[in-house]
Amino acid sequence: MNLNGFPILSTLIFLPIAGAVLLLLISRSNENLIKWVSLIVSITVFIISIPLFTEFNKSTHLMQFTEKHAWVPSLNINYSLGIDGISILFVLLSTLITILCVLISWNSIKAKTKEFYISILIMESAMIGVFCSLDFMLFYLFWEAMLIPMYLLIGVWGGSNRIYAAVKFFLFTLVGSLLMLIGIIVLYYQAGRTFDILELMTKTYPYQLQIWLLWAFFAAFAVKVPMFPVHTWLPDAHTEAPTAGSVILAAVLIKMGAYGFIRFSLPLFPDASRAMTPVMLTLSVIAIIYGAVICLAQTDLKRLIAYSSVSHMGFVTLGIFALNSQGMEGGILQMINHGVVTGALFLSVGMIYDRTHTRQISDYGGVASAMPVYASLFMVFTLASIGLPATNGFIGEFLIILGGFKANQWAGVLAATGVIIGAGYMLWLYQRVFFMETNQKVAGLADINLREIITLLPMIILIFWIGIYPNAFLGFMHESVKHLLERVNSGSMHEVGVAKNILEIIK
Amino acid sequence: MNNYLLIPFLPLAAFLINILFGRKYLKDNAHWVSILAVAGSWVVTVITLLDVLSGKVVNEDIYSWIVSGEFKVSVGFLIDQLTAVMLVVVTTCSALIHIYSVGYMQGDKGYYRFFAYLSLFTFCMLMLVMANNFLQLYFGWEGVGLCSYFLIGYYFDKKPASDAGKKAFIVNRFGDFGFGLGIIMIFLTFGTVYYEPVFSQAKVFAVQTINFLGYDVHLMTLIALLLFCGSIGKSAQMPLHVWLPDAMEGPTPVSALIHAATMVTAGVFLVARCSPIFSLSETALMIVALTGAITSLFAATIGLVQNDIKRIIAYSTISQLGYMFLAAGVGAYTAGMFHLYTHAFFKALLFLCAGSVMHAMSGELDLQKMGGLKKYMPITYWTMLFASLSIAGVPGFAGFFSKDEILWLAYSGQSPVGKFVWAIGTVVAFLTAFYSFRLIFLTFHGKFRGTYEQEHHLHESPKAMTIPLIILCIGAVASGWIGIPHLLGGGEHFTEFLTPVLGHPEAHGTHAEEWLVMAISIIAGFSGVGLAALFYLVKTDIPVMLAQKFNATYKVLWNKYYVDELYSFIIVRPTIWTAKNILIGVTDAKIIEAIVNGIPKGIGEFSRILRKVQTGLLQRYAAIMALGVLIIMAVMLLR
C-alpha cells in the first residue's frame, strides 16, 4: 500500500542523507545554519513519518507501504521495503529521537559541528533502513552502515576514554554481525537463492540447520540487545558517548537486537527458537537481576543508566521468548518504552552534565532546590523507569511478567524481583542527586530553559499516552504478533496457558 | 448517576492545576483549588451514598485500558456498599485535613506542592476504592504509595525525610511483588481480572490445587496469600511494618490522612473486597488473623516506651490495623470495616491534635519535654482526650463499639484461632488504653518540662486547625452509634448495610457470654487508663524504676525489637556488597572483561608468533620447504 504511489519509506531513508549532503555544502564556520538545517531536515522527516501512524491498516499482518525494485538481478538482490505492526513504531521512534538528538546537541557540541550533524543524519537513514528492509542484503547493508556514524560519534565527540569505548563497541558488534552474514548466505543457498525475507519465512528448514543458524543470528542480536554476558560494551559506550550518541544507542540502536529476534530468529527458525526458549528465558532473567543489582553499586550517572538498560532489555527478551501474545506485545511495547524513558534519562543527564561537567553521583545533591522544573521532569522519567501504573513502563512490564509467568513460573517470579530492585536503585539515585542538602557544586545552577523543556516534552507526552491509553500502540501489534506466534507455535509443541489447563480439569 | 465520576476527577484536576500553575501563579492561594475540589468530591459522595442506600449499585467500564491477546481490562468503576463506606471515610477525612493544612502549612515554601500532592493522593485513593477490577485497584494502590513517598519526603532537603520516603516505597514494593503475582494468578485462573466474574466464580475453584513453583498448593489459599502480601506492605503489618514509623518524617496532616485514616487501611479494604476468595481458604484466613493479632500486640508493646509523640501514634496505628486484620481473619469482615471507619476519625484526630501540639511547641516531638499544655490549648486537649477515650474503648465512644464487635466475633466465631486472637486482642486493648493515656498525661498534665522559650510561645492553634479538630471529634465520639449491637438495644445498621457485599458474620454464643466479653474489654480499657494515671500522674517515679529494673526488655522495646537493624544486616548490606565486590569486581571485571579483552589480546599474541615465521629470509624459507618435503616423503614411505 503506497500513499497514492508516494514512496514514503524511501523518502524517509533518503531525505536525511540528502540533508547530510546539503550540510557538506555549508561553510564550516556557519554553525547556526548547520544546526538549523539539521533541525529542519529532522523535523521534516518526522512529519513525513506521521502518515505511517495515521494511515496504517491495523487489521492485517501483511507488509504495508511496500516498495520493490530489482537491485542486483544476477544475485537476486532487491531493493525491497515495507513495514508491519512490529516495525512501524520503531520507524516513528527513530524519526522522533533524531529531532531530540539535534536539539540536545545544540550548545554542547562545539568541535567539528558539521561532521557531527552529518553523522546524526546518516545514522537516522541507516536506522530507518534497518526497520524497513525486506531484503536480507539491504538489511545487512543498513545494519552495518549504522556502525560507522555511531563509531564516529563515540570516538570523536566522546569523553576521555572514548577510543577504547568506540573500538570495543565496534569490535563487539562487528564480530556478531559477521556471524549473521554467514547465516544469511547459508539461508540464501538453502532457500534457492533468494534474499527476500518474506519468502524465506514461508519455508521450513531442517531442525539441525535451524539450530546452527539461530546461534549465528543470536551472535549478532544478543550483542546488540545486549544480553548477558555480552553486555560489557554497553556501559563503556554509554559512558563515553556524547549525549546524542547515548540517546540513539539507548533509544534505537539496542532495540535492533530484540527487533532482529522478532523479525528474523522467530519466524525463520521457529522450531529452534522454541527449543532454545529455556536458554533465552534464563539469560533474560539473569540480565534483569544482574543488571539491576549492579546498578546499586554504580557511582557514575550514565553508567548506572546503562546498566539499568541491561536489566530493562532483559525484560524485553523475556517477553519475546515467552512466545505468547502478552509477552510478545509487552516486549515490543517495552522496547518503545525503554527507548522513550532511557532516552529521556540520557537527555536529562546530558542537560545537567552540560552545566556541571561531572557524572559522579557524589558530586550532586539537592538539585531539586536549584532546578525544580528539571527535578519534576526527571521524577516522571524515574517513575516510568520503575514501572509505576499510568506510565508506559507499567504496561510493558506487567504484560511481560504476565507472559513470562505463563511461559515459565520461575521466570515470571524472578523477573518481578527486578521490579523491586529497580525501585531501589532509581529512587536511591534520585535521592542522591536531587534530595538532601545542596551540594556546593550544584548550588545556583540555572533551571532548564525552553529548548530543553521542548526536548523533553515529547517524552513526557509519550510516557503518559502509552501509560493511560496503551491501546493506541498495542493496536498496531495485535495482527502481526498473532500471525508471528501462529508461525512460531505451529510446530509440534502448542502454547497451553495455565488458565486453559485448569478450566479443562474442572470441566 | 454518572456524576460519580466527579468524585475522583475533581481532585485530579486540582492536582494538575496546582502542579502546573502553583509555583508561579497560585502560590499562597493554592489551597483554594484543592479544597474546592475535595469539597466537591465530598458533596457528590453524599449524593452517591444516598443512591447506594436506596439500593443502586454501579458497575461500569469507562474505556478500554489494556488489550493484549485474551487479556482485556478497562478503566471501570464499581460503587457498592463497601465502596460507599470508603468514599465517605476518604472524602470526609481528606476534606477536613485539607482545611487543617491551611493553618498548619502556612508560610511553607512548598505550599502549592503540598496541596498538589494532597489532591493527587485523594484522586489515587478514590480510584483505588472505586475500581471494578484488580488492575485499576493496583493503579490506585501504587498511586497512593507514590503520593506517600512524595509527602513523607516532603522536606526533601532533610536526609531523614528523603530516606523515609524511599524506604516506604521500597518496602511496599516487596508487598506489591506478591500482590502483582496474585493478580496474575487471578487472571490465569479466571481469565479475567474483573471483580464480578472473579468473585462469582471463585467457588468453582474451592478445592482446586495448582502447581506453583514446584509445590502443589491450594489455589484459593495461594491467591489469597499473594494478595495479602500487598496488604501487609500497605497496611504496615509484620514483617513489613518498618516503613510506617519512619513515615512520620512527613508533615503531620499527611500522617493523619495517609498514614492513619485512609491509605494504610487500603490493605484491610483489599481483604474485605476479596472476601469471597479469602472465605474459601481457612489457612489464608488463619494467617490473616494471626498476622493481625501478633502485629497488634507487637506494635502496642513498642508504643509503651516511645517518647516521640507521632511515633507513638504511628505504632498505635499499626496495632489498630492489626485489629482490623484480626477481625477479617476470623471472618468478621464487617467488624473490620466498622473499626476501619471509626478508627479513621479518632486516629486522624489524634494525629491532628499531635500536629496542633507540635505547632505550639515549635516542632518539638519529645513527650518528656512537654507537660501541662492543658491550660494553654484547651480545644486541642479536649478533642485529643475524646479521641483517646475512643481508642481506649471507653463505653459510648466510637472505638468501643467497633472494638467490642471485633472481640465478640473473634470469641464466638468459628475460626480455629478465634479464642486465641480474642485473648491477644483483649491484652492489646489494655495496652492501647495505657499508652494512649500515657501520651495524654505526659503532654497535657503535670508541669511543663520544656525550655523557657518554648513555654513562652505556647498558644492554641488557629481556627483553620481547631475547627477540623472539633468536627473530627464529633466523629470520634459518635461515628460508632450507627453500629450499636442488638445486645445494647442498637440496630447494627453498619453491619446490615455491608451485608450484601461482605455477608453476615456468624456468632455462636449466649447473651451471657456476650456480656462477659464486653465486660472484660471494658475492664481492660479502664485498667489501662488507670495504670497510666497511676504511673504518670500519681507515682511518677515508677516508670523510671521499671525501666531500670527490666533494662533488657526496655532496650528491646525502645529499639523496636531491632527489626530495622536485622533487615539492614541480612538484606540491604549483603545486596550492595554483592553488587560491588562480586558483580562489578569479579563477574564483570575479572570474568567477562577478561575473556572479551583476552580474545583480541590472544589474536595479537598469535599474530606476533606468526610474524616471526615471516622473516623475509630466502634461505630460511628454502630450509623450511626442504624440511616439509622431507616430512612428506617420510610419511609416504612409512605408509
Describe this structure in words.
The complex is a heterodimer of chains A (507) and B (639). Chain A contains 22 helices and 2 strands. Chain A is mostly helical. Chain A has one domain (8-506). A two-stranded antiparallel sheet of chain A has the order 1-2. In chain A, strand 1 (64-72) and strand 2 (77-83) form a beta hairpin. The model of chain A is unreliable at 492-503 (pLDDT under 50). The mean pLDDT of chain B is 87. By secondary structure, chain B is mainly alpha-helical. Chain B has a two-stranded antiparallel ribbon with strand order 1-2. In chain B, strands 3-4 form a two-stranded antiparallel ribbon. In chain B, helix 3 (81-104) packs antiparallel against helix 10 (252-261) and helix 6 (159-190) packs antiparallel against helix 8. The interface between A and B is large, with 68 and 59 residues.
The helix-and-strand class of chain B reads mainly alpha
Count of alpha and pi helical runs of chain A = 22
How many beta strands in the DSSP annotation of chain A?
A: 2
Number of E-state strands of chain B: 4
Strand order of the largest sheet of chain B: 1-2
Strand content of chain B: under 5%
Structural domain tally of chain A: 1
Report the biggest beta sheet of chain A as strand number plus sense, adding barrel if it closes: 2 strands, antiparallel
SSE ordering of chain B: HHEEHHHHHEEHHHHHHHHHHHHHHHHHHH
Cα distance spanning the termini of chain B = 101 Å
Radius of gyration from the alpha-carbon trace of chain A, in angstroms: 22 Å
Mean pLDDT of chain B: 87
First and last CA, distance of chain A: 47 Å
Overall average residue pLDDT of chain A: 88
The assigned structural class of chain A equals mainly alpha
**How would you characterize the largest beta sheet of chain B?**
2 strands, antiparallel
Taken from the alpha-carbon principal axes, the silhouette of chain A is: globular
